[in-house]
Amino acid sequence: MSSVPKMGCGWPGDHILSSDLESLPGVGKELAKKLVNGGHPTIESIIVSPPKEISENTGIGFNTILKIQNAAREAFNVGFRMALEFYEKRRQMPRCTTGSKRLDEIQGGGVEAQALTELIGEYGKGKTQLCMMLAVTAQLPPEEGGLGGNVAFIDTEGTFMPERIYQIAEARSLDPKKIANNILVARAYNSNHQGLLIDHLFTVVPENNVKLVVVDSMISHFRGEYIGRDNLAERQQKLNMYLHKLIRLAEAYNIAVIITNQVQTNPAQYFGSPIHPAGGNVMAHACTHRVMIKKGS
Ligand SMILES: Nc1ncnc2c1ncn2[C@@H]1O[C@H](COP(=O)(O)OP(=O)(O)OP(=O)(O)O)[C@@H](O)[C@H]1O
Ligand SMILES: [Mg+2]
Questions:
Q1: Which of 45, 57, 130, 269 counts the most CB atoms within 10 A of its CB?
Q2: Spacing, Cα 245 to ligand 1 middle (Å)
Q3: Is the confidence at residue 74, as pLDDT, over 90?
Q4: Which residue's CA is the nearest one to ligand 1's atom 19?
Q5: R_g of the chain, CA atoms, integer Å
Q6: What are the pLDDT digits (tens) for 120-172?
Q7: 129: Cβ below 6 Å to ligand 1?
């Protein structure tokens, strides 16, 4: 067992990923194997995940997980830092172009890494199209506005179209075959399956150099499965849990996460727009940035 060098750079996502779990004090071959098999293949995912969740995923005792987490935080020097340093870091945060100058400007230069960005809109307003555009632009090198990495796309509505990826790539004089070969697509058939795929991202992202994760749409299965007020609390709890997993994923691996959201109409509202993002407060609190797409004149 080798000792972990002090990285001294603060928070996860700041530095090169470390999958060398055995370098942590107290973690031998057996524990490392359990952590990897339980979906925690990197030190970053151990730092950001709640101990109860790691314990449940891996079968390792809660107290042992607490010790491993302390060792990981110590190794990565996770703690306080000056706001100035944080400011400089945020200025250099990777951003991904949407292909639209105006939309990039609204988001401070593009879709931000280490953040959860929500695209909201009525049906047919272009959410999926924008996600597919980002699945292409994210692969561009940073100097061309991309994130220089691959993409993981969770499609919950069966609307991901590889043909559209080809069109977008060809329009930008990129090799469509190469672009399509760098997008990992999974179709989620229900909310439970969607949750499993999100859990799986903690392994898929570091193993495949994924820099952008898309969940299109985040809410449709939840809305379809948890009908009525009686089921609302359970729906919101589950939704909240997965949203927070996505935030942790974004922070741990320094990647951008995009989710799409639908709208709901309040027929009792007489003043102002009766159209609101679905998912209520849970969605509003969890997302770092909210972008509402509306039809222009
Ligand atoms: N290949 C294409 N090229 C250009 N525009 C397209 C193409 N395919 C679909 N569109 C247009 O894109 C628009 C938006 O479709 P999109 O599927 O992105 O909507 P959405 O916001 O995801 O809707 P939903 O809430 O139903 O999922 C539609 O008006 C459609 O006509
Ligand atoms: Mg769509």
A1: 45
A2: 28
A3: no
A4: 124
A5: 20
A6: 999 999 999 999 999 999 999 999 999 999 999 999 999 999 999 999 999 99
A7: yes
Model confidence band, residue 35 (pLDDT cutoffs 50, 70, 90): very high
Nearest CA, atom 5, ligand 1: 129
Give the number of residues written for the chain: 297
Joined together, the tokens standing for residue 63 give 């107290």
User: Residue 130 CA: which ligand 1 atom is closest?
Assistant: 18
Q: How far apart are CA 57 and CA 108, in angstroms?
A: 37
pTM of the model: 0.89
Q: What residue owns the CA closest to ligand 1's atom 1?
A: 164
pLDDT of residue 73 exceeding 50: yes
Structural contact between residues 295 and 125, judged by C-beta atoms closer than 8 angstroms? yes
CB burial readout 71-101, b (16+ within 10 A) else e: bbeebbebeeeeeeeeeebeeebbbbbbbee
* Ligand 1 near 208 CB (within 6 A): no
Q: pLDDT-based confidence at 20, cuts 50/70/90?
A: confident
Which pLDDT value is given to residue 6? 39
Q: What is the mean pLDDT of residues 213-233?
A: 95
